[in-house]
Specification:
Layout (H helix, E strand, L loop, with lengths): L3 H16 L11 E8 L11 H6 L1 H11 L4 E8 L4 H8 L5 E5 H11 L7 E10 L5 E5 L15 E4 L4 H12 L9 E4 L2 H10 L4 E5 L2 H7 L4 E5 L7 E8 H6 L1 H20 L1 H12 L3 H8 L5 E2 L5 H9 L1 H7 L7 H4 L3 H9 L4 H6 L10 E5 L6 E3 L2 H13 L4 E7 L6 E3 L4 E5 L2 E5 L2 H10 L4 E3 L1 H7 L3
Parallel strand pairs: 1-2, 1-3, 6-7, 6-8
Antiparallel strand pairs: 3-10, 4-10, 4-11, 5-8, 5-9, 12-13, 12-14, 14-15, 16-17, 16-18
Helix pairs in contact: 1-16, 3-10, 4-5, 10-11, 10-16, 11-12
């Protein structure tokens, strides 16, 4: 295993080759500063943001470098609602490392490449969903809409350039609706869009995690479209300015190592990680755990081929929203530094690259009883209903119940799901459209409310 100093030298050589900087250009004073842009409420980035910051993994690793004879390090964390302002600050050379979703990553690479000092590289993934379930469209609770076509001609709130907007563009296109002329997209920050939805100013909102889950959990919205219907991977990842990496390779390595620390902690302790993230983001812990619990987001730092293939295909999105410079995603995505981080801790990167299992293990069907610091897993939706029924019979309060969509595999709130009964078996779906597809193939299945399903299920 290489020493930290040897690893830093190796990283410096690679980074300097990318930027053309010399070692003299990388000279620093007594204190090395690193500015990190993150999104506290974006659950898929917590291993490079909220959780990482709260646990202090980066600062701890940098302190060890100082103890080994290196300079002092100063870390500044800047919190944003979306990836766009992080990219703007990286273009201005004011943020060194950032994390954001796949579509914002494309914009980041396109916007920063013109200037050698601001040019970035995509270094690692934070979290992903192989089908695209991390982005969703919600509507008001009393909306008559049952599918995306019902929003044709309506106003929809989205953060243009975000992962949620990218999903909306793809979904509308597949539904035969022109994403430019077929709807009116209001470019709004997530919290502004949430207020617009609640006040009736828009008919729908398309956003990334955790906004759809949060609004549904708060009974301020219902889910209309699950991004998993696209069956296209969506992910979030880490970018760093190449110039900064060339000057301070040990800092970028420490960041990637710290991201792996946070990832492995989340694998081991997903409920505790949800508590920490909830505290740092001011999101309800039940909402955080929806995404980082078993069957939720796959937290994995490797640059998987399937994700990169989808990433390259997403380039069409840039052309649909403005005049962006072409981006060679194969060059922008650089796995050399994350490979080195794996090697430094004795992990096999290629084995992890090939592994597509969700390391936060479990079926995704899960019951969380109020007052308990552990959860109760269930094998399938029917078993979950039995567990809910038993818990209610004992007079206990249920804090949250999670169920996996029977068609798309999306983890969702059981009491917000659309339920069908087919004989003695119960099926849960995130949207009416998904339930309708099942009923078309299984005419005997009938719709049933959640509470009725709990009452009827056989113990």
């Amino acid at each position: 295993m290489p020493t930290l100093k040897r690893l830093a030298a190796l990283l410096a050589a690679g980074a300097l080759a990318l930027t053309g900087c010399s070692l003299e250009d990388a000279a620093t004073g007594d204190t090395v500063r690193v500015v990190i842009g993150y999104q506290s409420k974006t659950i898929n980035t917590v291993t490079a943001g909220t959780l990482l910051r709260a646990q202090g993994y980066l600062e701890q690793r940098l302190a060890r470098l100082t103890e080994d004879g290196g300079p002092a390090y100063e870390v500044e964390w800047q919190d944003y609602d979306t990836g766009a302002p992080i990219t703007a600050q990286m273009v201005a050379e004011k943020i060194d490392i950032g994390s954001m979703g796949d579509y914002p990553l494309l914009i980041n690479g396109s916007r920063t490449q013109a200037n050698e000092r601001s040019r970035t590289a995509f270094l690692s993934v934070t979290g992903y969903n192989a089908r695209g379930a991390l982005n969703m469209v919600v509507v008001p609770p009393d909306s008559p809409a049952t599918g995306l076509p019902d929003l044709a001609g309506k106003k929809i709130s989205a953060s243009v350039g975000s992962a949620g907007h990218g999903t909306l563009v793809q979904a509308l296109t597949r539904a035969g609706i022109d994403p430019v002329t077929g709807v009116e997209v209001l470019n709004q920050q997530p919290q502004v869009g949430a207020s617009a939805l609640e006040s009736g100013q828009v008919s729908g909102l398309s956003q990334f995690v955790a906004w759809p889950g949060l609004l549904v959990f708060q009974d301020k919205a219902k889910l209309l479209y699950d991004g998993a219907e696209l069956n296209v991977p969506t992910f979030h990842g880490v970018v760093a300015r190449q110039n900064y990496t060339a000057q301070h390779p040990e800092v970028v390595d420490a960041f990637l190592q710290a991201q792996l620390d946070a990832t492995e902690f989340l694998w081991r302790e997903p409920l505790e990680a949800a508590r920490i993230v909830a505290e740092g983001s001011q999101l309800p812990q039940e909402v955080v755990y929806l995404y980082n619990g078993p069957g939720g987001t796959s937290f994995d730092a490797t640059l998987k081929p399937g994700l990169l293939a989808a990433f390259a295909d997403d380039m069409r999105y840039l052309k649909s929203i403005g005049d962006f410079a072409d981006l060679d995603t194969a060059v922008f995505a650089d796995d050399r530094l994350i490979r080195a981080a794996f090697a430094a801790r004795g992990r096999d990167y290629d084995a992890a690259l090939a592994d597509t299992t969700n390391r936060t293990s479990g079926s995704g069907n899960e019951l969380w009883v109020d007052g308990q610091d552990t959860t109760q897993p269930a094998g399938n939706p029917t078993d979950l209903l039995r567990a809910v029924k038993s818990t209610r019979a004992q007079g206990k309060t249920i804090r949250a119940a999670y169920v996996v969509d029977s068609e798309l595999g999306t983890r969702w709130f059981a009491d917000k799901a659309v339920w069908l009964r087919d004989g003695d078996t119960y099926f849960a779906f995130t949207t009416p459209a998904a339930a309708g597809r099942y009923q078309q193939a299984h005419p005997a299945a009938r719709a049933i409310g959640y509470d009725q399903a709990v009452a009827e299920v056989r113990s």
